[in-house]
Hints:
Blueprint: H1 11-26, H2 28-40, H3 43-46, E1 75-79, H4 111-116, H5 118-123, E2 125-127, H6 138-147, E3 152-156, H7 159-162, H8 173-190, E4 195-198, H9 204-211, H10 215-221, H11 227-230, H12 238-263, E5 268-270, H13 274-277, H14 295-309
Parallel strand pairs: 1-2, 1-3, 3-4, 4-5
Amino acid sequence: MPERPPRSRDPRRRTTRRARPRARAGLTAPTAALTAVLVAGTGVLAGCDSSGSATPDATKKHTAAPAWNRSPESVAAVGDSITRGFDACAVLVDCPEVSWATGTDPGVRSLAERLLGAPAAKKNSWNHATTGARMADVPGQMELAAQEKPELVTVMAGANDACRETTGQMTPVADFRASFETAMRRLRAGAPKAQVYVSSVPDLKRLWSTGRGNPLGRQIWKLGLCASMLRDAQDMSEGARQRRETVYERVVAYNEVLKEVCAKDARCRYDGGAVFDYRFTGEQLSQWDWFHPSKDGQGRLAEIAYRNVTAAKYPG
């Protein structure tokens, strides 16, 4: 009997065997991709809850923060009496033309004029600040500012939250935070791309120290101006010292809130405490109350703001 020819192997088996390594190699692709994601950042880990399920945040793609526009073409301001130029031109009246943020007085050279030029500043800047405003009033001001669709919004508020009749009446830090967060949300609802420049609250204790040497200023302070800090200006008893220190610490806490809330918004810049640290002299305080900025003081605030808004590096 003739020998049978060798049985040829099924070519499909050879194909199957050769394909297996490729199949196993293919399993490493998702692993490599996952590794790349984990190396790039911890966002995927943060997007998983305790059960291992992905939360909605895990599906978000990382995007770079928008570049800060150092030459905005419109400015809106919110805040309190400082931004209204109160007591800078005459006693007990607003003087918005010398406002550090949007004023038109050439002696001040407001932030708006420095950024836009005088003719454009008159048309493309708006002042929604109000004398006596506290942070709780800023959300409403922000809504008005958002209607203008400004490219930059300035915020200076908080002094009136600390300037109360007594230290016990000062705005709690948690309420201050909630109001500022609400203000930012309302701005974003109406003007999502607006940039925000946030000024720190001035050092009220330093203003007391500077102005208490002026007899006229002390008489005005007796009318109740920022009583929590300025009452009994010459009293150096332990109780008075502690009262002033309590106000000082509250202002420090407010500024920390401004810094923290601003840091959560990619289009927000905090001044890094520049206004708080600024040493106002008698020349830079109102001759009528020795507390609010004078015209010269308003110019100093404009300088600080312009330097921070146009800085290449974030100051806060």
